[in-house]
Structures are given as C-alpha cells and as structure tokens.
Amino acid sequence: MADWDANVGLLPACRELLDSHPESLRIREQVEALEDAMPDKPGVVVSFCRTIIETTCKTILTDRGVPIDAGWEAPKLISEALKYINLAPRDDGAVDTRLRTGTESLVRGINQIIQGIVTIRNDHGSAAHGADAYSPLLDARYAEILARATDSVVGLLFKTHLRSARRDPLARFRYGEHPDFDEFIDSDFGPFKVLDIPLVASEALFRTDFNGYRDALVRFRQEDADEETGERDNGEATG
Q: How far apart are CA 93 and CA 103, in angstroms?
C-alpha cells in the first residue's frame, strides 16, 4: 500500500506503554514485529494483533494474582481482565455509575473488535490453519484498521489497569512504581551500607521481602485513603 507511512507510528499507545516499562521484552518483540510487517505482510499483522491483546490481558491478570486457564483465548481473556479493572473510577475510588453505563457499551464494542480480529486472523492470518498456498493476501488496509483498533484496546485496558493499581497495589509490580511510599520508607530508614556498598532501604525491602513490602504499601495506601475520607467529611460538615 503506497500511502503507508511507517514514520507516523502504527501503535502509539503500545509504544507509550513500552517507554514507561522498557523491561517488557515480550510485548516489545510483538509490537516491533507487527510494525515491521506493515504493509507487505498483512497476515502477520493480523496474527500479532490477537497475540498482543492476549499478552496484555495475561499481564493484567498475572499482575493481579489471578490464575489463568491455558485454554482461554482472546475473548475470554479480555472478559476476565475487565473484571479486575475499574473502567469508571471516581476520585475517591468508587464507581461513577453514569460513566460505567457508557463504558459498558464501549466494552461491548471492544469485545466485537476482539471477535473480528479473531475471525480475520483465523481466515487470513499468517498462522491460519489449512490456508491454500495461492489464496490471496488480506488487503493491507484491513490490517492497518485492525492494528489501530488493537492499539486502542491495549491502551485503554493497560492504562486503566495501572491507574487503578495506585490505590490497590498489585500482586506483581515493579520497584519504583510507588515513589511516595519509597520516600516514606527512606526518610525513616537509612541510608546504610553493607561491606561499604550503599543500600536504599525501600529497594532492599522490595528485593528481599516483596510480600513484606507490599503489605506495608497496602497499609500506607489505606491510611492515605482514610485521611482523604476524613478531610472530605470534615469539609462537608463545615460547608
């Protein structure tokens, strides 16, 4: 497709997430393979659309400590992932019912997108089973539409997942994602040295006792939430 411009960026939301999580090597590999396949290998693009969505959903579920059935495919994975992220948050962590109603319609659209990707992948993807060697390739325009839809789905799901994790710490997360808590620890403990090697208290706790670090983080977040609730109630009482 002559009007394809690789410099525009096919997956901006995925790229943004990769910039913030450079250690996510598996999804980086998938994103780069998809972009490299445009426009000459549309079947590869379609196959990686499904793969990226599945990887995103599995990452969300694993981050939240949810067991994943090996037989779950994209539609089931996305429905399970949606159970654990708040797509309609209010500032106090509750659910905005009007926003939730609209979001539910959006989710139904997402599921239709996923099903469309699965159907096209099964018929036209590079991994399609039993395809005739001389069957025509999918038009690159369809591959581009699917790639951009995939990027939108991944951006919505993963950004919402990370945002909600600020109030409810994940079962799996990376050191440095809660800088206010790290600063709270480091202001009371350390710095100290072991064999002349300087150690940061928050990082040492994270690396040696993740569960202890997470339990303390949960208490820290709960105290913050209690303080916010108290301040809001006092403000309403005086107002």
A: 16
